[in-house]
Design a protein that fits this description.
Length: 330
């Protein structure tokens, strides 16, 4: 208010012409206000809410995926034993031996990850689309894939430290003690900044592959169901399309996901793999090629119908509720 009064006073005194600092100051303030009013914050907020909710619903599935991916490592005595035969067997054994609460080991960093990763991913995805096209009907598959890859790479890179801690808490269960912040500090003290961003390139690659494969697969599946199978554009079509694109995404990303999980789970002083390529070669040589598809089924369930439907339909519902509340109270 003080700045605005000062600008108005200068105008009244006649000092504010097109060549004075006052003019440029007032113009800058006006431009900034217009830009702030045009900023669409809703995709960021609703995207974060939808992502956090989806994470809560699918977290036990994600934990079994991590446990399946880290087991059977020949070079690591801690994870050499094959303890789980599959997702359901893993859930049952974890509940019997560690308690039901163990299925939610690492939930706190996972929630923090989705609050940052999900918020940034969906928010920047919508923002990038607004930069490239003016109207939704002008969007193309290439535009959506490009925006999705960029938003996925940016958001996953920023949220990488939470991913590292989540995977370690999932894999090691009750071995990790203390608060989330305390464990962040321990990783930083023992491994430095590189420890918190361990596997960041793999995380970015996985995000790019998932988006780059899933969006075209979803589009093709939905088009085929509507045109060739004569299904309408309804929830059943969305479910089947999500099922198909989740399968494609899991097939394409699972090998990178296995390597990423194992690299992130390496703690200070217990280095089994010297790098990404070394991990890939050791895993395929000592455990066979199919070891790169450990945890495939829970990965498919995470990428497929449940996670997609919960995320995007909840996002739509939250947006609808927001508009209804604004209509009632405004």
């Amino acid at each position: 208010m003080a700045t605005q009064s000062w600008v108005n006073r200068e105008y009244r005194r006649g000092y504010c012409n097109h060549h004075t600092p006052v003019y440029f100051l007032s113009t800058g303030i006006t431009t900034a206000c217009i830009q702030m009013s045009n900023f669409n914050w809703k995709p960021f907020v609703f995207g974060g809410l939808a992502s956090v909710t989806a994470e809560c619903g699918t977290f036990p599935i994600d934990l079994t995926k991590t446990r399946l991916q880290v087991q059977g490592q020949v070079g690591d005595s801690k994870y050499r034993e094959i303890r789980y035969r599959g997702m359901l067997h893993a859930i049952g054994r974890i509940c019997r031996e560690e308690g039901i609460s163990a299925l939610y080991s690492g939930l706190a960093p996972a929630m923090l990850r989705q609050a940052s990763y999900g918020t940034i991913k969906i928010g920047t995805y919508q923002s990038f689309k607004r930069l490239l096209v003016d109207r939704p009907e002008d969007e193309t598959l290439l535009t959506n894939v490009l925006c999705g890859v960029l938003s996925g790479v940016i958001s996953s890179s920023i949220a990488n430290p939470t991913d590292v801690l989540k995977i370690r808490m999932q894999a090691q269960g009750n071995v990790i003690q203390g608060s989330m912040m305390g464990n962040f500090i321990n990783i930083y003290q023992q491994e430095g900044t590189r420890g918190l961003w361990k596997g960041v390139s793999l995380t970015a690659q996985r995000a790019a592959i998932v988006v780059g494969v899933e969006l075209p697969a979803y589009d093709l599946a939905k088009k085929h169901l509507i045109l060739d199978c004569h299904m309408g554009d309804n929830i059943y079509t969305h479910f089947l399309s999500s099922f198909a694109c989740g399968l494609a995404g899991a097939l394409a990303s699972n090998p990178i996901d296995v390597v990423r999980t194992r690299m992130m789970n390496q703690t200070y002083g217990a280095v089994t793999y010297q790098g990404t390529l070394d991990c890939l070669l050791q895993t395929s040589r000592s455990e066979g090629f199919m070891a790169l598809y450990k945890g495939f089924f829970p990965n498919w369930l995470r990428l497929g119908p449940w996670n997609i439907i919960v995320s995007f339909h909840l996002l739509s519902e939250v947006c609808l509720c927001f508009h209804l509340c604004m209509f009632i109270y405004c």
